[in-house]
Design brief:
Length: about 400
């Protein structure tokens, strides 16, 4: 008899994340004319809603039909010039890819390398900024998805101000925005990038770029070549409620539904939920006697936990067993941490019991891969925390 696939395959990678049913249903609409006179009724509220998500008051947010990498390129090519000196740091796969893009686009990159498990090095940034007034831009990865590390973006702006730097601040918020507190205007972020497939709970295919008033002004003197990602083309079309090319209309309908879910829950509550769920996963990891790739609590991410596997255990094998034997997808370790970690994504549309399912599957996959873990220890630790946290939340809301 054929193996019957009942139930669902559980998705606990840090993106794409689970798509809520209201969002899936919202995308199930007939094709429509994106040049129709009433199309702006769909698009204009999206730009307004995204500005609230970013915390962008005086600038604007662009929506590109691309992955987050497209918005990375748009941010650079619309505001900087070839040969501009920029300050970056590498401490994971995605901060590494961003630095590679900057170099390939012709920027003069000062790159500070840190241990994979740490985040943006504020002291190193301040040192470089004080000693090199030619730095035109500073880049910071808010949440490094490969290692489960969150950095202090407000702190980056503080050291920039302390050093007297007038550089632009670029932030990769792909796995943080809409899940972890982010305040573009208040933190002085000039260009902020995210993607549809993370905290916004959509399929991949859209990137969003929050642009400050200062960055819009810098755009006027940028001479880098661009076409598809041109701010000029986007501004002209967006002001009319349209796009300079055919947009993915179904994804825009989904975005409207996801924004409604986020605003109904309330952004502070969304951030608190992510912290609560992440802390339960961390308690579970500790209960199993394992540790995180993030080297200390100051770096812990509320959207993804990269879990170090015991000596002699292959993290890729844990992921393989989890997928094939228990129909659960975990994120694997990337490049420098390949085989050394596996990742549990805990962002977007999820709750306590879903996180317990992730821990349960992880325990079984670890044990099957040969790790000496006590089955149930991680789940039990997380259950205890979730019960206490849920009781405290209910008491607070009475």
């Amino acid at each position: 008899m054929a193996d019957m696939k009942t139930g669902v395959t559980h998705l606990f990678v840090p993106g794409p994340t689970n798509v809520p049913e209201p969002v899936r249903c919202a995308m199930n609409v007939p094709m429509q004319d994106h040049r129709a006179p009433d199309f702006p009724e769909l698009t204009r509220p999206l730009f307004t809603g995204l500005k609230a998500i970013f915390g962008n008051e005086s600038g604007r947010v662009f929506i590109y039909p691309s992955s987050g990498s497209g918005a990375w390129e748009a941010a650079i090519s619309n505001t900087l010039n070839r040969g501009d000196r920029v300050l970056m740091s590498r401490f994971g796969q995605f901060s590494q890819l961003w630095a590679d893009m900057a170099q390939r686009l012709g920027l003069d990159v000062i790159c500070v390398d840190r241990e994979w498990g740490e985040g943006v090095p504020l002291q190193d940034y301040e040192h470089h900024l004080r000693n090199d007034p030619t730095i035109r831009a500073v880049f910071a990865t808010h949440n490094e998805t490969a290692t489960g590390v969150t950095s202090d973006v407000a702190g980056v702006r503080q050291v920039m101000d302390a050093a007297g730097s007038d550089a632009l601040l670029f932030v990769d918020g792909v796995s943080s925005i809409a899940s972890i507190d982010f305040q573009q205007e208040a933190w002085g972020v000039d260009l902020a990038v995210t993607g549809s497939q993370k905290g916004l709970m959509l399929p991949p295919g859209l990137s969003m770029l929050g642009v400050s008033a200062k960055a819009l002004e810098a755009h006027m003197s940028s001479t880098m070549q661009r076409c598809y990602f041109s701010f000029e083309d986007m501004i002209k079309a967006n002001d009319a409620g349209s796009f300079p090319y055919t947009p993915p209309v179904q994804l825009l309908h989904g975005l409207r539904a996801s924004l409604e879910l986020l605003f109904t829950e309330g952004l502070p509550q969304v951030f608190a939920r992510h912290h609560r769920l992440a802390e339960g996963v961390r308690r579970g990891v500790d209960g199993l006697g394992l540790s995180l790739c993030a080297v200390s609590p100051e770096w812990y991410s509320d959207t993804v936990s990269a879990i170090r596997v015991p000596e002699g255990i292959d993290g890729a094998e844990v992921c393989r067993i989890g997928y094939h034997r228990y129909r659960t997808s975990f994120g694997g370790g990337l490049t420098k941490v390949a085989g050394k970690v596996f990742r549990i994504g805990h962002l977007g549309d999820l709750n306590e019991v879903m996180c317990l399912a992730a821990l349960s599957a992880a325990e079984m996959a670890l044990a099957d891969a040969g790790a000496k873990v006590e089955l149930g220890a991680g789940v039990s630790a997380a259950q205890t925390y979730y019960r206490e946290a849920t009781s405290a939340l209910e008491a607070q809301n009475r």
